[in-house]
Specification:
Layout: H1 7-17, E1 22-25, H2 32-39, E2 45-48, H3 52-66, E3 69-74, H4 83-91, E4 96-102, H5 105-114, H6 127-132, E5 139-142, H7 148-162, E6 166-171, H8 195-211, E7 215-219, H9 222-225, H10 229-239, E8 243-245, E9 260-263, H11 271-279, E10 282-286, H12 292-295, E11 305-309, E12 312-315, E13 318-321, H13 325-335, H14 363-370, E14 378-382, H15 387-392, E15 402-404, H16 413-424, E16 430-436, H17 437-443, H18 446-452, E17 458-463, H19 468-474, H20 499-503, E18 506-510, H21 513-525, E19 531-536
Parallel strand pairs: 1-2, 1-3, 3-4, 4-6, 5-6, 7-8, 7-10, 8-9, 10-11, 14-15, 14-16, 16-17, 17-19, 18-19
Antiparallel strand pairs: 11-12, 12-13
Helix pairs in contact: 1-7, 3-4, 3-16, 8-13, 10-13, 16-18
């Protein structure tokens, strides 16, 4: 070939072109040669993880900030451990690349035709691909150097277009074989809309915006995933109407903005947001996903709410198919609807109760206290736990400063995702993680990777000794009565702060507000390793906005 390239180098070059700066990996003999010969000499830094699910969560967190994330594992024993992380990325539209180091063609044929098995084989060449084909938008097997460029480009283009995971089987005997070098730069495929549906949808929505006296804009997660923050802000400013977000899209725009009213998430919402939603005569939902985390004992009024998401517009009995969200916003902007003069309801700040240094920390008291430490340079991540409720009402002023996996809601996501978030964030930002003790037990080894690479998230572990959110979902009356927790919800207690001695980082155990203040002060000064703050709270203490569910 006139220009030298190999399959292994081709994949590295394409990932680098797409902005990948870090690759999360677990060493495996089917992938180690690609990692050692091609990734190591490149500008992509290898982040050696401790297990595949942590690597997947880290890559997911990285992708949410960087626009693409990747992990490399080995066949079956490694890849199948990453299924849960990839599934979460698929549900939440996160562009993730799973590279699966795979046995050679010779080993595969030997197993299939003689039964002589290479390690990690299950049932031949289809097992892993079949496992991932339902939770990725492309699954490819690179078993030909001549087809490798086409296959890799196809898969990566699907990844950046659909903002969802892809799966690449990279056979160990392919990486050094010559192939064509990359041509041009990969770009997302064009976004298409049906012109008739688009025009009808724009006309219907503009008519509603013009006639409504108290319209409201509800911004969803697709605003973030599709990079539409600036266009959404332009529309809100043009209309001069208040806007709310959902938990999954919290802080998609700055929460310091004068038109921001809060997070609309059912009965967990603040009274001000509940009043705003109730008194609005038209709600425009842009990129909002309807989930049970959004409802929480409350149903949207479908007769007054237009939902534009998943390339369609739904409003009452109207359905407009193949309407891209970006094109819809552009169309509404072009109509220049007259701005409104609606005054926002008074936003009730979280109660600033006076607490003494020796007072015992409560769940709600913790969140009231921690607000003072969150500024425009803070990235907050809340795990699937009662921390959803506490963090929902936090004011996060930095746009893009909140990361949550609330649609898929895999317990244990946030602490491990913080590894990727720390590597993808700006240098002037600091990551704070709020996790339950049960969730942290699932991915605690993330501290090893974070310490190894001198990352400095501050991880608050709310230690109440139970899977509180699971108990709350099953029977919330336990938190309001002298009743025992369900036995499966009771945890084995860890001394979380002492893990700092195991992993070589910093740790504090606190039970009072004075101890909490000292711990946060120390953690903010700790720049070279993660900080664990074990926050002891009474086992039946829950955030105020979770108390509506008594049974």
């Amino acid at each position: 070939m006139s220009e030298g390239s190999t399959v292994g180098r081709y994949l590295v070059d394409r990932l680098r072109q797409l902005g990948l700066g870090h690759l999360f990996s677990i060493a495996g003999d089917y992938s180690i040669e690609w990692l050692n010969r091609y990734v190591t000499p490149s500008s992509i830094e290898i982040i050696e993880e401790v297990n595949e699910v942590n690597a997947g969560y880290a890559a997911d967190g990285y992708a949410r900030l960087k626009g693409i994330g990747a992990l490399c594992v080995t066949y079956s024993a490694g890849a199948l451990c990453a299924v849960n992380a990839v599934a979460g990325a698929y549900v939440e539209k996160v562009p993730l690349v799973l590279i699966n180091g795979t046995p050679s063609i010779k080993k595969t044929l030997t197993f299939e035709q003689t039964g002589f098995s290479a390690h990690h084989f299950i049932s031949g060449r289809e097992t892993d691909m079949q496992s991932f084909e339902h939770i990725t938008v492309a699954t490819i097997r690179v078993d030909s150097p001549d087809l490798a460029p086409t296959l890799i480009d196809y898969a990566l283009t699907r990844c950046i277009t659909e903002r969802r995971p892809i799966y690449i089987e990279l056979l160990q005997d392919m990486v050094d074989l010559e192939c064509e070098p990359p041509r041009g730069v990969l770009k997302p495929a064009r976004t298409l809309s049906d012109e008739t549906s688009l025009e009808q949808s724009v006309a219907r929505i503009c008519a509603q915006l013009e006639s409504a006296e108290n319209p409201l804009v509800w911004l969803g997660v697709e605003i973030d995933r599709l990079g539409l923050q600036d266009k959404a802000m332009s529309l809100i400013q043009q209309l001069n109407v208040p806007f709310v977000t959902e938990l999954l899209s919290k802080a998609v725009l700055s929460e310091d903005d004068a038109l921001f009213a809060g997070v609309l998430d059912g009965q967990a919402s603040s009274p001000a947001v509940t009043e705003l939603a109730a008194t609005s005569d038209f709600v425009l939902g842009l990129g909002v996903w309807l989930t049970d985390i959004n409802s929480l004992g409350w149903e949207p009024d479908y007769d007054k709410t237009a939902f534009a998401s998943f390339d369609a517009v739904k409003f009452g009995t109207y359905f407009g198919g193949q309407v891209a969200l970006e094109h819809l916003i552009d169309g509404i902007l072009a109509e220049k609807v007259a701005p409104k003069a609606r005054r926002l309801p008074q936003n009730l700040a979280q109660s600033a109760r006076t607490v003494g240094s020796s007072d015992v920390i409560t769940y709600q008291g913790f969140y009231n206290f921690i607000q003072q430490y969150i500024d425009r340079n803070t990235v907050v991540s809340a795990d699937a736990s009662m921390n959803y409720f506490g963090s929902l009402l936090l004011e996060v002023p930095g746009p893009g400063g909140f990361v949550v996996q609330s649609s898929y809601s895999s317990i244990g996501y946030s602490a491990a995702a913080a590894t990727g978030i720390c590597l993808a964030k700006r240098p002037d930002q600091r990551v704070m993680v709020f996790t339950g003790d049960g969730g942290f037990q699932m991915t605690a080894q993330c501290l090893s990777t974070q310490t190894r690479f001198k990352l400095n998230p501050i991880i608050f572990i709310i230690d109440n000794g139970v899977y509180a959110v699971e108990q709350w979902l099953a029977d919330a009356s336990v938190f309001h009565a002298d009743k025992p927790f369900y036995k499966p919800c009771v945890l084995h207690r860890w001394n979380y702060s002492m893990l700092s001695e195991v992993f070589g980082c910093r740790g504090w155990e606190v039970g009072t507000y004075g101890e909490l203040r000292d711990a946060v002060t120390g953690a903010l000064k700790n720049a070279n390793s993660p900080s664990i703050i074990q926050v002891r709270v009474p086992d039946k203490s829950i955030p105020d906005n979770a108390k509506w569910k008594a049974q």
